[in-house]
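Handout, tutorial session.
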Amino acid sequence: MQKKIDELIKQRESITAGGGEAQIKKQHDKGKLTARERLELLLDAGSFNEIGTYRQHGCHDFGLHEKTYPGDSVITGYGQIDGRRVFVFAQDFTVLGGSLSHVAGEKICRVMDLAYENGTPVIGLLDSGGARIQEGVDSLVGYGEIFTRNTLYSGVIPQISVVMGPCAGGAVYSPAITDFIFMVENTGQMFITGPQVIKAVTGEEVSLEELGGASTHSKKSGNCHFVATGDKECLEMVRRLLSFLPSNNTESPPDFMTEKGEALLDDEILSVVPEEPNRGYDMRKIITGVIDSDDFLESQQQFAPNLITGFARLGGRVVGILAQQPAYLAGVIDCDASDKGARFVRFCDAFNIPLVTLVDVPGYMPGKDEEYKGIIRHGAKLLYAYAEATVPKVSVIIRKAYGGAYIVMSSNSLRGDINYAWPTAEIAVMGPDGAVNIIYRKELEASSNPALEKNRLVEEYRNKFANPYVAASKGYIDDVIDPRETRSKIISALEMLEGKTVDSPAKKHGNIPL
């Protein structure tokens, strides 16, 4: 027996070595950890159980029969994060560049299936040169099987992609379907076609980082949700995200009873919103004042910063927060903000996370550029997502709420459950200035002092229409509240809505305007 045990130990040492010391050194020289080192940091100590340890590719062409490694180019299995089970796969760049073989695809699909069958999140650590060219169509089939599972299990179990190295070609579509994408600066890259192909086809010259690095995808494309400076920080961020998410769509988010803070906010909240209606301010000051222990995990922070999205706790309960950012583009809704918000709302709705919306929106972004980009279609996505969502929805109008932008932000008419407003709220078809220009155009043209007359009419319109009391008198606002009550009112509303159930029309699925 001891001989057998010794042989087992020897084989395990060989497996742990991956592609060998030279390849491991190359990985470290690039500032990257190996796949096994990453799994050790991601999972609770000693909790990892490997699956498919000895699987090997069966390709004999192009000399690949001489390059076989136990487990091939991906490590798969399950473990725990904060005591909760997760399934994982980590591509091993030290083995044939982490390229996806047919066997590697089968291994990944197996842990995805097990995650679905057991109602458990699945996390992929991506670091791969793409499809294994030597295997031809077999490797492409592997990707197709992964994409199918990404799609079928979407909204059933959380799926998280962590881009820690290259992710190129068709491989990028798997993370694109998953719920959240993390990227590591300088080492993580995503692109459909690489710099060399782009130069050959279009003549453009672009670096790997400029084309598909973390900065590009977090600021410009919006494909990336979270950015980290290194592998260790990135994996810590993944663990933090998991603390806000349920294991599957039949469960509620984990209730970590943290220090809740005072129910009533202090007087500082009263000075956040400027007296001047056109001055900006930082909405994060209100968010951090309202939530538990300043624990706010912001998603897509650098993309469409005019809309803030993220996870927090209120009274110990996990919530998804959406809020305009008046400090950027006055908090206007544009195409990118619409996509960002709609995606976030639908994720929260799929996984039973209540929505809290803080509103200060002057409208949709005007201009031909936005119209040409499809603001009608993009804006409708956000509207669709809010109307479709059946989780508890609580909104607070902080200042401006004009026109269609008022409607879309979890309003009463989009099945918002509880709608509050601060006394500073202005709820109208459009701002007083624009309304006066239209309604009193002839009077202003005939006036001997148009500027003075306009100021008078704007103030008159604001007092008569642009306040929360008209909407409240019609039942569109449930209560006008003291800003210091915001936290306690939201917590109370969420407690009341805990048992909410909604019947929606029977259908295969809706047709969101993609």
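The second record follows below. Compare its token runs with those of the first.
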Amino acid sequence: MDQIRILLRRYLAAAWRYRWATVACAWAVCGLGWVGSTFVPNQYEASARLYVDADAVLTPLLKGLAVDNQVTSQLDVLQRTLLSRPNLEKLVSNTDLDLLIASPSDLEALVLALGGQIKIVPQTKNLFTISYRNPSPKLSFDVVQTILTTFIESKTGNNRSEMQNAMLFIEQQLAQYERQLRDAEKRRAEFRTKYLDLLPGEGSGVSGLDGAQVQVRNLQGALADELSRRELLKGELAAIPPLLVTETDLLQGPAGPAPNPAAAAAAAAAAARNTPERAKLQEALGQLDQMRLQYTDNHPDVVALRKRIELLRRDVASADAGVAQAVPTEPADAASPSPGNTRNRSQPNPVYEKIKVSLVESESRATSLQRQLADTIKERDRLLEIARGAPGLQAEFTNLNRDYDVLRRSFEELLSRREAMRIASAAEADADKIKIQIVDPPQVPQNPVAPKRLLMVTGILGAGLGIGFALAILLAQFDQSFHTVDELRDLGLPVAGSISLIVVSSRRSQLFAAFSFSIALMMLGSVYVALVLRLTKTSGG
């Protein structure tokens, strides 16, 4: 802390020793600065504030129906294109700035300068300020007014021009896609007509060849079931007698038929046919016929039903065997009436006739199924021969469908875009989606905004005093005298003691020196105060 105090006292002593050099330097710097500041031209600024907002009613109504041009993006484009070279050259030609142009190089320099001097600053989301500075108040006003006019014209002109260009492009693309779509539809229709039986249907997705193969399998299964039913009916028919024989007692009259083993067997066979197992078997066979019309032989339900039919057939066979063993056998002469007293009568067996009719129907169905199966196999073989001749048929048809679907989706998308563009164009022409309101129109400026002369004068005074003090310190650095005993000891020499400064000059001369120094500083301050009062009066008036 003592060292800092000692150093400060040394600098103050040096400044006092070289006080007149400090005053002279301050006067020179301030004088030159104040005189030079008068040659700095005034800058006048003209500005205008715009409020830009989207239509509060139309924009929500058109959302999702028309092309949505964001206000922010539109304004960003306007700001970037507004200060483009063509617009700036138009600005120069419409104002007095063209008087400053003497050569193409001057025009180039002026355009570059205007690009940096014209400011378009967003103050809030929807509030923008356009400003320009120039030494001429009228010229600054003309520039801002021209920029404002160009801004409004660009807002409507650019949007409508872009709408027209976009609509023209979409119409051209629609015509091109329509031609391609028609060609694709023609190729697709010709291909389908040529290979109609081998291609899947529009709704079912099953081709004629696949349908023929499924039908062959179904007919083969139905024929096998019908043949099995026919064999079963033949076995039953062979076990049942075609006629029923009855005996009548001539003496006693018609006292009822005598017991007959054949009749008992027929009755037992009829009872066997009426068992629940046989009824279930017939019902299962009918269900199998219905299912084979819908599913293939490998379908799980068909396979399960077939297994159930086999079990039912075994049950029916076991029931028939049990009935055959249970038929009683009696001697021929056990209770038979005498031949002279009886008479035999024969009549058709109704059970036999019914089974015979069922057998005929089964044979007829089997014959019809064989004929249908032969025709279906012939048709399947024909389609297989065609399919072998065109191995890449399905892949080619898939490619045609894929190309057609892509073109159709693109065409439909362009149609929707065209309708959205028409709505947007109508909204742009009949109702402005973006509203521009001039909040503060530009005015011819009366007072300069730059330079800040009061601040400049004050800065020059501070710079003069600072430079003068710095000059005094610099001169003190070149001073070879010693101010303290410690400075002598720092040289490494023995110091016996020190003698205080003997003031040679009189007290009056010291006061005169201090007074004259103060007068010089006061005169510098008086000039500064006069300049400040003049600047204040000028700016106030």
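Points raised in discussion: Residues 2-40+451-540 form one domain.
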